[in-house]
Amino acid sequence: MGAYILRRSLYMIPVLFGVLLVVFVLLRLVPGDPVEIFFSAGITGGSGATSGSSGEVSMQALQRLRESYNLDKSIPHQFVLYVWDMMRADLGDSIQFRRPVTDIIKDHFPATFALTMTSMAVAITIGLGAGIISAIRRHTKTDYFAQIFAVSGVSIPSFFLGQVLILAFAVRLGWLPAISNGYGKEMILPSITLGTAAAAILARLTRSSMLDVLSRDYIRTARAKGLIERAVIWVHALRNALIPVITVIGLEFGGLLAGAVVIEAVFHRQGIGLRLVNAIVARDYPVVQGMVLLIAVIYAVMNLLVDILYTYVDPRVRLTDQGKS
After folding, report:
1. Contact in structure between 209 and 245 (CB atoms under 8 Å)
2. How many CA atoms within 13 Å lie on the side-chain side of 279?
3. What is the DSSP string of 67-99?
4. What is the rounded CA–CA span in Å between residue 132 and residue 67?
5. CA-to-CA distance for 211 and 132, rounded, in angstroms?
6. Residue 120: CA count within 13 A, CB half-sphere
7. Which of 93, 126, 170, 232 has its CA at a distance of 20 to 30 angstroms from the CA of residue 13?
8. Mean pLDDT across the chain, nearest whole number?
């Protein structure tokens, strides 16, 4: 198992490098000079230069700021310097706030992580529950209702659902706050908004997997031996049906983390999602690169954890991995 984890961890390096390269190049292909945007917003630069009475900044001040962020160099040269700094755990400083990117991530990541975890809890609870019940009660009204929920949850855009929930429960009824900056009831609406699509996907996959397992010979054998239906469902069927579902849960966790970018903007939650949107608008290259890299790392780690979890859900996977190693 140790060799397997090491091998998979090494596979992450080229993946993360590719993600960083694509983001790095695309950011610099987007029109807009981050230094000019920085000064046009009326912000004082770290060099001490400020906008004059006419609102213009000297070319010397602009050039000094570009040099401090290596923006005066070619894109390949910039990338090499950034990778070198990143290998020393230095993600650079924000152009907007003149603070280390790592400090900005530390300040805003807890809010995003909490939202992702609560959304994942919503998705697993509703998705697995609806999928299992739908499979057990196939071709009943409950099954049809669960399938309608699954199709609707996948089809409705999350940003639209979030605005509808704000209008209904915050504006009309006044039950919940529209702005989510805390960790209590402020998280209910964004968690439901973010977790609904994932719950719909899990519901459809769980139903399909459960129906496939329930048609297997060993399930018929378990019933023929006189086992109660509850034991057949929860002990024999569910464990085998969860194997493909676990993969999707791991992928959906990364998807929820990335989806928080939109949901945090809708609910004005002060997490890395909202900060990332603002950084893209301001062309704050270091912040965008650091936060996208963080999301990519978490996504890759979740895939590794899912593969490890396989070995506990399905013993055949463990034997295969041990044989390879």
Report:
1. yes
2. 25
3. HHTTTTS-HHHHHHHHHHHHHTT---B-TTT-S
4. 59
5. 9
6. 19
7. 93
8. 80
Q: Where are the domains of the chain?
A: 101-324
Q: How far apart are CA 205 and CA 150, in angstroms?
A: 10
Count of helix runs (H) and strand runs (E) in the chain: 14, 0
- The pLDDT score that the predictor gives to residue 41 is 63
C-alpha–C-alpha distance, residues 258 and 269, integer Å? 14
**Alpha-carbon gap, residue 39 to 27, rounded angstroms:** 19
DSSP state of 186: G
What is the second-level CATH architecture of the domain 101-324? Orthogonal Bundle (1.10)
Owner of token pair 């989806």? 259
Tokens of 104: 């900005």
Q: Which tens digit of pLDDT belongs to each residue from 141-183?
A: 888 888 888 888 888 888 888 889 999 998 888 888 887 777 8
Q: Tell me how many degrees the CA angle 294-71-291 measures, rounded to the nearest 5.
A: 10
Using DSSP's 3-state secondary structure scheme, residue 100 falls into strand
Query: Whole-angstrom Cα distance, residue 301 to residue 11?
Result: 11
- The per-residue b/e assignment along 96-125, b for 16 or more CB within 10 angstroms, e otherwise, is bbeebbeebbeebbebbebbbebbbebbbe
Amino acid at 65: L
Cα angle 73-78-79, degrees, rounded to a multiple of 5: 155
Supply the angle between the helices 2-29 and 75-87 in degrees, to the nearest 10.
140
Q: Which ranges of the chain have pLDDT less than 50?
A: 43-55, 319-325
